[in-house]
Amino acid sequence: MYWTFHGVELRAVARDLASTSWGWVPLAALADLFVYVWQSWRWNLLLGPIARIPLWRSIRAIYVGLFVNEILPMRPGELLRAYLQARWSRLPFSVTLSSVVIERFFDGIWLFLATFVATFFIRLPGHVVGLARLLLVALLVGAALLVIVNLRRRNHGDRPPGWLAILLTDLRLMARSPLFYWSFLASLPYLLLQAAPIYLLLKAYGLELSLWASLVIVLMQRLGTALPQAPGNVGVLQLMTKQALSLFGVDPTTAAGFSMLAWIVITAPLLLAGSVAVIVTGMRVSELKRHVETLAPAAVRADDH
After folding, report:
1. CA-to-CA distance for 127 and 240, rounded, in angstroms?
2. What is the CA radius of gyration of the chain?
3. Long-range contacts from 175-178, C-beta under 8 angstroms, 24+ separation
4. What residue ranges do the domains of the chain occupy?
5. What integer pLDDT is reported at residue 305 of this predicted model?
6. Which residue in 225, 221, 226, 271 sits closest to 242, CA to CA?
7. Is residue 268 within 8 Å of 61, Cβ to Cβ?
8. Angle 55-71/77-89 helices, nearest 10 degrees?
9. What are phi and psi of 124, to 5 degrees?
């Protein structure tokens, strides 16, 4: 946050925010909420070979997880949504947890490919390119680890320990279905749809930038927030948004103001929808926190669940 607002005239930011065309903001919020409806549908595709799950159930689990991510650091909502899906759908926790890992692997592949394509059209900052390269390394290491362990198991009959054995077993089960590959393809629209709320907010803020610019902003946001960090990605999301806007000639003061608007409009609907999902679930925030505290070790020994 310091680097986002360093040297920025705060009064000008306040004036820009006050002159926002607020009619665009509800549309941006709805577009952002729809992104996670799409994610829920994709999750159902991935789990389709194992169980038929109502879309609403997956939406509820995802929004509870998003709510937790907005109020707690290190993004524990990913574990929590896997746990809730397992409990509600009567699935092993190892299965739902593995599906979340696979989802993120799909997201990482498309994020890297989209960033790679973007470098042909715009000069991205060096640290952003570096983050993309680290993402590629992580994807390659993860894929190589899965292949090596799987081959070793086939050739020597060894059983890999802990979560890796569970992940391999569940991955093979899901990969036997065509739905696995449809869920991979559905991950591209999931990434692209995230540009829609940014584009609508650019219009609200009076910035006449294209959908292409909106997508570049999303790519930089996603790369910057790939690692779990502060609640709601506060700070990093604003900084990456400001840096992305600078690539399109937006001055620092305007870019800093827009970064705050984008963070608020992206975060507030998720808190609201997540609160509703928590209420419908019948759980209290203290109960959610207690589940989160127990899920990290449970993820390692998921074969006991």
Report:
1. 11
2. 20
3. 176/49, 177/48, 177/49
4. 2-304
5. 43
6. 221
7. no
8. 150
9. -80, 150
For the purposes of burial, counting CB atoms within 10 Å of the CB of 125, is it exposed (0-12), middle (13-18) or buried (19 or more)? middle
Q: For 74, what's the count of Cα atoms within 13 Å in the CB-facing half-sphere?
A: 7
DSSP E strands, the chain:
none
Q: What is the mean pLDDT of residues 91-120?
A: 93
93 pLDDT band (50/70/90 cuts)?
Answer: confident
Which residue has tokens 């570096």? Answer: 130
For 54, the 3-state DSSP assignment is coil
DSSP state of 33: H
Query: Residues 53, 47: contact at Cβ < 8 Å?
Result: yes
- Residue type at 17? L
Total residues found in the chain within this entry: 305
Dist. CA 71–CA 22, nearest whole Å: 26
- Cα separation, 22 vs 201, whole angstroms: 9
Structure tokens at 193: 């749809």
- The sign of the dihedral angle between the CA atoms of 70, 71, 76, 79 is negative
CA distance 265 to 30: 10
Burial tier of 94 (Cβ tally within 10 Å: 0-12, 13-18, 19+)? buried
Question: Tokens 């050739």, residue?
Answer: 155
Cβ–Cβ < 8 Å for 290, 226: no
Residue 180 has what DSSP assignment?
H
Give the other-Cβ count within 10 Å of 210's Cβ: 12
Per-residue pLDDT tens over the stretch 145-188: 777 766 665 555 555 556 566 666 777 777 778 899 999 999 99
Tokens of 278: 């928590």
C-alpha–C-alpha distance, residues 107 and 111, integer Å: 6
The kind and range of the H/E element at 241 are: helix 236-246
